[in-house]
Amino acid sequence: QVQLVESGGGLVQAGGSLRLSCAASGISSRIFSISPVGWYRQAPGKQRELVATASSGGAADYADSVKGRFTLSRDNGQSTFFLQMNSLKPEDTAVYYCTGRFLLGDYWGKGTLVTVSS
């Protein structure tokens, strides 16, 4: 059974940084390495929105609101991917979800809360 588990959320002051991790289990590292992955977020009272996505070998795409501040990276050998978030703003406060498309199925983590105080 494929599972994604996020970690790294928390409370940070505006201008600070956090690094989210998403560890995949139940699939081989080879499958992980050729699969697209991404991060979404959902702020209170708002719809879930795309933050960043990356194909297996291509560059990541980012929402305009996070370009230049967030970076998606992956460690295929560890079946883990990351979201480095710098220069955080209060409007980045949300539950962050990781997702991956593995073997034609879409999988989601349960989310990790990021709170940015002003």
Structure write-up:
By secondary structure, this protein is mainly β. Helices cover 4% and strands 53% of the residues. The protein has one helix and eleven strands; from the N terminus they run βββαββββββββ. It has one helix at residues 29-33; strands at 3-7, 10-13, 18-25, 37-42, 49-54, 61-62, 70-75, 80-85, 94-102, 105-108, 112-117. The strands form two sheets. Strands 2, 4, 5, 6, 9, 10 and 11 form a seven-stranded mixed sheet that branches. It has a four-stranded antiparallel sheet with strand order 1-3-8-7, with no helix packed on it. Strand 7 and strand 8 (80-85) form a beta hairpin. The mean pLDDT is 96.
Summarize the model shown.
By secondary structure, this protein is mainly β. It has one helix at residues 29-33, and strands at residues 3-7, 10-13, 18-25, 37-42, 49-54, 61-62, 70-75, 80-85, 94-102, 105-108, 112-117. It is built from one helix and eleven strands.
- Class computed from helices, strands and strand pairing: mainly beta
Distance between the termini: 40 Å
Major β-sheet profile: 7 strands, mixed
Give the H and E element order.
Answer: EEEHEEEEEEEE
The number of strands is 11
Distinct helical segment count: 1
The stretches of 5 or more residues where confidence is low (pLDDT under 50) are none
Shape category: globular
Mean of all residue-level pLDDT scores: 96
